[in-house]
Structures
1.
Amino acid sequence: MIENRIQELVTILNKANYEYHTLDQPTLTDQEYDKYLRELIELEEQYPDLIVADSPTQRIGGEVIDEFNKVVHEVPMLSLSNVFNEDEIVLFDERVKKVVTNPTYVCELKIDGLSVSLLYQDGKLVRAATRGDGMVGEDITHNVKTIKNIPLTLTEKVDIEVRGEIYMSKKAFTRLNEERLVAGEVPFANPRNAAAGSVRQLDSKIAAKRNLSAFLYHLPSASAYGIHTHYESLEYMQKLGFTTNPNIRLVGNIDELLEYVDNWTTDRDSLPYEIDGIVIKLNDLQDQERLGYTIKYPKWATAYKFPATLVLTKLKEIKFTVGRTGQVTPNAMLEPVILMGSTISKTTLHNEEYVTSRDIRIGDTVAIKKAGDVIPEVVEVVADRRDGSEIPFEMTQTCPICHSDLVKKEAAYYCVNPHCDAKRIEGLIHYASRDTLNIDGFGDNIVEDFYNMGYLKHVSDFYHLKEHKKELMQLEGFGKKSIENLLQAIEDSKQNPLDRLLFALGIRYVGKKTAKILAREFGHIDALAKASYDDLVAIRDIGEVIAQSVSLYFQDPDHLAEIKRLKLAGVNMSYQEEYEFNSEFQDKTFVLTGSLQSITREAAKEKIEIMGGTVTGGVSKKTDVVIVGEKPGSKYKKAQALGIEIWTEEEFLAKCQ
Ligand code: IVH
């Protein structure tokens, strides 16, 4: 029977996969594997109805999604507290010992990847999700199915959620970057970014090519499976077919714990994947509960983070750049060095004081530090490498672009020439960027090129580009389609609410949050323009500095003329709250539980807040209403027990109308 043969082939191939990718003990040769796989592919092509969900062919990729669906984590995906040295590890142990006598810990490597939640029903993988903000993540099932050491079927038909880390090995990372360079693509900075970029693809064929792997390290509801310790969770996960990290150790005292940390601090480079620390977890699950949680972290675990890596390089030159506000910043141009996987050839030196206080000179050998995601920094000068040829730093007194004299305000120097090209270009880039008017397609280079060619000088010029459509289409690198897309994006951007426009205009001290406060308060740009300093300063959350800056901005005739041009072009100048204050919500405290079907948790929270309510995490006597989605958790039971008002999702949405 064909069906039986297909099942047989799936079993053989999945077993071989497990032996190869999880146990690291292959039993089939590559040729044998390929032979079985080819036979399976042929049969599946002939009998597509007989393809089973856990067939290895389902890992090849090909599923393309339109967008990432949101996933609400039943149990929030918490992060870990950090410790940075031995003393802090000892303090952690002492805190634990206040609650637990003779604690046993599990020490694990902290894999530098991205966390994932895997959901199995009846032993079959049904959903994989990113951590997101811990409460709501994104559905990445299509990509996770392509990861070869994540089982599509477990050895037992259980309903279970497991969590772990998706990562890219050093070897896969190097190979991928080599390929990208050959293809003229920008290489990834480090394996973590490469792994994260791969699971954030809509087309699973890309993830399938990326050679990702996973270690599983957490079973959120372990006790429901009769498990009593974290170590048993790991053993159970292994039994189900998951890969757990082979370097996990049980330790019975602080000396053993510190020894583990010491050993891996020295040996980390010998691993085939990157780690950024050590995770220490209390082993006994009852002990874990005794220690409990904060909103962000379990108190029963912590992560020791390795110290930031330092590398030495030569500082070749200091170049000045001008930002949108006119601030002139010194930048170190470096002899390129590789630091934690990325090549660094330039880094900011912040301001004059930063350079002089460290006595950084041109020609110096400097130590560069990079900690995690943070931008690299020059930490210090290696003074004994000086040979006398180094040139002391001098802050420029003129703008590097328009050469007008700079004005010093506190630690920073500013170019105050309103016509300075650099400032204007930065201002135009800001206007089109994602957090402001979000004009799709207008990257920094296009804005700069259009500026230099004379098409863009003021922000209102964006709306006149359509008058040059024919010329623009002739430009090198552009065509009919790309110019039409740019023009359409400009049209679409006119509908943005006032707060985005206010942020986009680049009024000093008016960031995203302040722009929203002003837009809400005044509703229309004309009302804001008429507001006096006193009107502004009277607003909650608006201080003297912002009030002065805003009122000065609207006194400038050039600014008013520009706003008029934007108005004439049809740019929206008003702000309307999406919802009115609503007595069903005003001054009430809400808790959301379960998974909402037609709205994300974040959107629901926003609606409630706009209508005057507050959303909190846990149910207490102070909670007024609990909104329940599907499969609500313990919060629902608690709400019932406390007699708190309960709304279904439909009831909630109806009350929003
Ligand atoms: S345990 C409640 N174990 O580190 C348990 N996390 O900084 C939470 N990570 O978000 C996680 N290796 O992405 C755990 N062996 C390990 C880990 C690990 C890497 C990541 C994970 C987590 C982050 C916290």
Note: The radius of gyration is 29 Å.
2.
Amino acid sequence: MATLAGALILPGRTYDEKLTVKPSSGSPVIISTWKHGVAANREAWKILQRGGRALDAVEKGVNVPEKDPEVHSVGYGSYPDRDGVITLDASIMDENGNGGAVSFLQGIKTPVSVARLVMERTPHVMLAGEGALAFALENGFQKEELRTDFSIQKWEKWKKDKVNRPVDLHNHDTISLLAIDQHGNISGACSTSGIAFKHHGRVGDSPILGAGLFVDNETGGAGATGVGEVVMKTLGSFAIVENMRHGFTPQQACEEVVKRILKKVKDAEKNPVFFIAVNKDGEFGAYGTHAGFEYAISTQDGGTVLKGAGSMLAEVSV
Ligand code: GLY
């Protein structure tokens, strides 16, 4: 079997015809990353089902894993950085091309909701660190302890062992969520605590529009999860939307970008990245550099299901 700089290349699975089936016209579609996307989609679906706006759906959907202490790389209860602090990144985009983001935010359980207010109540796109926290507090958010016993125990163990595990499917699972509402409008949101035991101050791809998330209501949307440094060097979500603009299906668009990343980015074969995408017609796609990526999809006809995505390489071994 072929290898790419020592990584195992999986045979064959690429384009999945089933993913190109168009949903009934005017019916909502939601796609999100990982298993925790299932609960997020269900919350988002309630909003879309009653004719609500995609922007509300993506925010409320992403709030679910943000508040869930059992999801350890989004919001409350996450892995801390190497100084024992949980720092959060998030972004959101609406159907009018507006975007908001926060980075290096501490003490707020729902960073994506702060990102939305940055978009709606300031002339800016991103607020970071103390400024983002001050803005959140001015706008009614409460500062809270985000570390759970899990977060503290994992940090204590990391301090003792100082072993930097490679990013894997169990310590790095940003939520990206894209939705189309009954009016055909697309919005997206993304939220993460980033890589476990990252350097204090590190910011990843999730709050960078075009990297962790991109929505263009004429064409479609895309979102990322995985090692942000790789996504930031390639503006993966923007590239996927541009591919769709030039005629690719969402699935083809994701696959082309993953192939480009593995060809161009040094060490990408050791640093997994995964993408989801949806186009204006409600067709969706998902693909990753490495095996093991799951995504949640919700449609009128199919309900909410968790699916495994294709990849070019075998799962990263830890
Ligand atoms: N994809 C999220 C991060 O790397 O921070």
Note: The first helix runs from residue 36 to 49.
